[in-house]
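Notes from the 1:1 (GR / supervisor)

We went over the backlog. Supervisor wanted to see one worked example end to end before approving the batch request, so GR pasted a single chain during the call. The sequence is below; no edits were made to it. Supervisor asked that the structure be written out right there so they could see what the output format looks like.
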Amino acid sequence: MDIAQILINTLVRAAELSLLAIGLTMVFDILKFANFAHTDYAVLGALFAYVFNRILGLNLFLAIILAAFVTGWVGILIDQAIFKRLRKIGAKPVTLMITSMGTAIALRNLMRLIWTSHTKTYAIPLQKPLEILGARITPLQIGIIVVGLLSMIAFHLLLHRTTFGKALRAISDNSDLANACAIDSEKMIKRMWFLASAYGVIGGSMIAMEHLLYPRLGFDIIIPVFCATILGGIGNPYGAMLGALTLAFAENLILALDLAPLINLGGLFNVGSIQISTGYKPAISFMILIIVLLFKPTGILRKK
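Structure output shown during the call:
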C-alpha cells in the first residue's frame, strides 16, 4: 500500500467533492431542503465550459469561469421560476426536495437532447506524471488541488469578511430577525443560488477534466456529494470540506487495501492479491453514508 499515493489521490478527490458539497450545504442551510438537482447544475456548467473551450476555442480556465457565471444565472432563473413560487405558498421542505428531483431529471434529459449521451473531453494535452515522494501526480491534478484550496479560502473570506457573507449567516441563524433588521432575504437568496451554482460548476468541471464529461455525470456523483455533506454535518460549509476530505481518504484507502490476507484465513486458502475495483467507488460512498446516518446523523461538525 502506497500511503503517499493514497494521500495525493485523497487531496485531488477532496478538492473536487468539497466545492460541490459547499454549494449543496449552503442551499440546505438557507432554504432547509436537499437540492437533488445541484450536481446536474454542475454538469450543465461543465458542458457550457466544454462549448466555450472546445467549440469557441477559449482557454480552459477562462471557459470554466465564464461557464460558472452563466450557470450561476441559470440557478437564479430556476429559483425564481420554481422554488420562489413554492416558498411564497409556504411549501414544505419535502415538497421542495421532490421538486428538485424533478428539476434534476428535466435538466439531465435536456442536456442529453442538446449534447447527446456521448462522452466528451476538454482540450487538455497529454501530461507526463511527476513523482513526489514516490507517488505519481499530473500537473492537472496539482492544478485541481490548488484551485480547490484557493476556492475554499475565497469562500471563507466571503463568508466572514463581506456584507453578503454576514447577511447570509444572519439569515441562516434567524431569518425572521434578519428580515426585521432590514436584510433583504430574497436578494441574499438570489446571490446564494449564484454562488452555490458557480462553485458546483468549478467542482464538476474538475471531475470532468480528470475523468470524462457526459450528461449523466450529475447522477453518478450525487451519492458521494451527499455523503460528504452529511458526513461533515449538513448545513455547515466547513463540515462539507472536512466531510469531502474524510470521504476521499476512506475511498482511496479501501480501494488500496489488499483483501487477500482476510480471504486466506491465515494461510488456509491460497488466494492471490484481491483489491476492490474502482468501479465500486460509489458503493463505498453509499456504505459510509448509511453508517453515518445510523450512528452519527448530525455529522462530524454539527451545525449550531
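Supervisor's comment: The chain has one domain: 3-215.
Batch request approved.
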